[in-house]
Design a protein that fits this description.
Elements lengths: L1 E3 L6 H4 L3 E5 L3 H13 L3 E5 L2 H10 L4 E4 L8 H8 L6 E5 L4 H9 L4 E4 L4 H14 L6 E4 L2 E4 L4 E4 L2 E3 L3 H12 L5 E2 H8 L10 H13 L5 E4 L3 E4 L2
Parallel strand pairs: 2-3, 2-4, 4-5, 5-6
Antiparallel strand pairs: 1-7, 7-8, 8-9, 9-10, 11-13, 12-13
Length: about 230
Amino acid sequence: MFFVVNILAKQGYKDMIRILAVDDEKPIANLIRISLKNVGYVCDVAYDGNTALDMIDENVYDLILLDIMLPEVDGFELMEYIRPLGVPVIFLTAKDALNDRVKGLRMGAEDYMVKPFEVAELIARVEVVLRRYKKTEDSFELNGLTVDAVSMVVKRGDKEINLTPKEFELLLLFLRTPNTALYRETIYEKVWGGELEYGSKTVDLHVQRLRKKAGLNKELKSVSKVGYRLDV
């Protein structure tokens, strides 16, 4: 899959990027949440390791900001759990010893920021990591299908494909999480907001229409007892 990457994410679709900030210092965690929200991201917060584990199990995050010194489960233990999920991590911590920084980076963290830090620098580093992980593109190409996230234009070859707003958001979600099995509940939360009602076929019907309109019958696959996955 080929991505055309812009230097900055467009404000109009940053709200599809979901970040988890894990810090037991509530003023810092809430400052991070408000600061990221002000520039257009969705940000959840957890104040201890066990809560963070539950939130990671229940949600799909594009980035995790992780303190090291946490009650119950510390940041290094959390990193061991997060690493197989493929979610990028930036450590935010007061532990500035060289061996801690090296340990964090060797465990797979994308960056390491020592407290106190400037919010502007944090946002800049968040954007760098998201770009590195292909989370903020505004153009995509997949097997002859081209998608412009800003103009909301979808084409196969020279022919424009007319999608409803929800079908378009659904397509962007799959393009930004390739090769990842997404639960129906997660898809519904990301695209429609709220919780998926038991027995609802909303997600399935929209996926069926998207497959047909965009010609993604081979790429957009059903995952038994889970939901759907875009294979690229």
